[in-house]
Design a protein that fits this description.
The protein has 300 residues and is α+β, with helices and mostly antiparallel strands. It has helices at 5-9, 17-30, 41-55, 58-67, 114-122, 144-149, 221-226, 285-299; strands at 86-92, 95-101, 136-142, 151-157, 160-166, 175-178, 194-200, 207-209, 212-220, 228-232, 239-243, 252-255, 271-278. The chain has 3 domains: 5-122, Orthogonal Bundle (Helix Hairpins); 136-200, Urease metallochaperone UreE, N-terminal domain (HSP40/DNAj peptide-binding domain); 207-299, Urease metallochaperone UreE, N-terminal domain (HSP40/DNAj peptide-binding domain), CATH 2.60.260.20. Helices cover 27% and strands 27% of the residues. Strands 8-9-13-12 form a 4-stranded mixed sheet. It has a 3-stranded mixed sheet with strand order 3-7-6. A two-stranded antiparallel ribbon has the order 1-2.
Length: 300
Amino acid sequence: MVKDYYEILGVSKNASAEEIKKAYKRLAKKHHPDVDKSPGANERFKEINEAYQVLSNPKKRAAYDQMGHAAFTQGFPGFGDFAGAQTRTGRWGPFTYTYTTTGAPFDFGEFTDPFDIFEEVFGFRGFRQPRRGRNLYYTITIDFMDAIRGLTQEIRLDGKKLKIKIPAGIRDGGQLKFAGEGEPGPQGAPPGDLYLTVRIQPHPTFTRVGDDIYVLKEISFIQAALGDTVEVETVEKPVKLKIPPGTQSGTLFRLKGKGVPHLRGRGRGDQYVRIRVKVPEKLSREQRRLLGEFRRLEGS
């Protein structure tokens, strides 16, 4: 004989959602397999969970109130097969427990998981060990060059000192995980983890694209025309760059291996130097004369 779900939970048909939840928590704790060793306790436990699955869901409860168990019976006119049925398994202490929820082809809303209630009652739930402490998430802003070279420093979070190591080559938005540095777990459970998102301040000279560095180098039109050797800043130290005669403004030179260290793996990115030819805004009389002569010779 199929029992009435309200009778199983010991509540009236007018019971509120909160009353149903309280009744379920009380009965689940009382008839938990680790607590109730009497014959038939496991079946009783299954009935309690099945009743809560229906009565805690407003749409399932409305269908049950209107049609009783027939609302969840395969072949009932207008309802078809039970694609919504779900089987859940949990473990409490030495016991493994499986139960199947009823289902229906129309939308009954969100699946109400009784294991969530067990987490409140017993401090743990199926499929896992006692829940860990909460993970913590923070953001730290570091200097551009510290991101290139790497950084080890001590920070203070929520009153706790933590020594962190930021690897060379980390990118803006990169996240570091510090296992076990989150909030302590309840009832002696393991602590959560700490996740640190790294933001990088922009640099006035260098622009980073992946592991490559881009920099603008300004030269005179004489240097561009005749060629020269100029000094260029890199993220490590200045280097000499040879400018061939006739170099045009916008020319891009590559300095291999002068970029950012690869975060995972050996080597570094490259540095690209873009040339900008500067044209003087004012010329002396002699400069004008010489340029005029150059123009005359160029056209001859």
